[in-house]
Amino acid sequence: MLNGIFTYIFIAFMMAFFYIGTIPPYFLFGIVIIAFIITSFYYDDKSSVNRFIVSLPVSKGMLIKSRYYYTIVTALLIITFQYLVMLIVSMFFNGPHYIYQWEDIIILICLTMLMSSVILLIYYTFQSFISASVITLFGLVIGIYFLIDHLVNILDMHEDEVIIFNDLDPGFPLLVETIMSLQPYVSLLVVSLVIFFVSMKGSEKMFYKKDI
Taking the CB of the first residue and of the last residue of the chain, which one, N or C, has fewer CB atoms within 10 A? Predict the structure, then answer.
């Protein structure tokens, strides 16, 4: 347990350190939340914990739901921590550090629901951790490529010779408002919730079919 606490402290320290170094907070958030999801399955696979869990007097459906809800709670804690760091950094550094607005918080929560909907469903579908990881990694690479392409277009960076990675964060709200012209943040939240709960149901069915 002590090792786990030190790990969380180290992650928090590194997130603050990289943010001060002007690494985009969206990027830091995405890396950490994806790592949390994948490492949880890694430790489950390594210790065969699912065999123990299914023997407990708890329904499989509840186990699946708890994993989904845990991801959202983790995301909220990360966002809160990041925002506090942003406020503190803004007091001492007069740099180009991006600070979340309410639109960003909604986008990050929805992004968590969408990413977890895909990643969790993949891991519950495949018996092999390695196979699920390869597919997840491939999907992330493709998804990040198209996301950056859209952000570059929306921020009109084509005229620059070099795409400045640190300047991409302001493009997320613009991208949402461009794609969803009618009540963009409400629409994004509704769509994300629907996909999230559909994925949860799908993961339940896949988990029931697994030979554990």
Answer: N
Place of tokens 């951790």: 129
Whole-angstrom distance, CA of residue 185 vs CA of residue 130: 36
For the chain, the domain total comes to 1
Q: Is 82 within 8 Å of 15 (Cβ atoms)?
A: yes
Q: Which two tokens stand for residue 99?
A: 């600070």
Task: Provide mean pLDDT across the span 110-129.
Answer: 92
Helix (H, G, I), strand (E, B) or coil at 87: helix
Q: What is the DSSP-derived secondary structure letter of residue 165?
A: G
pTM of the model: 0.87
Compute φ and ψ for 100, nearest 5 degrees.
-60, 140
Question: Tokens 């709960």 map to which residue?
Answer: 197
**How far apart are alpha carbons 25 and 86 in whole angstroms?**
9
Q: Which domain holds residue 24?
A: 2-209
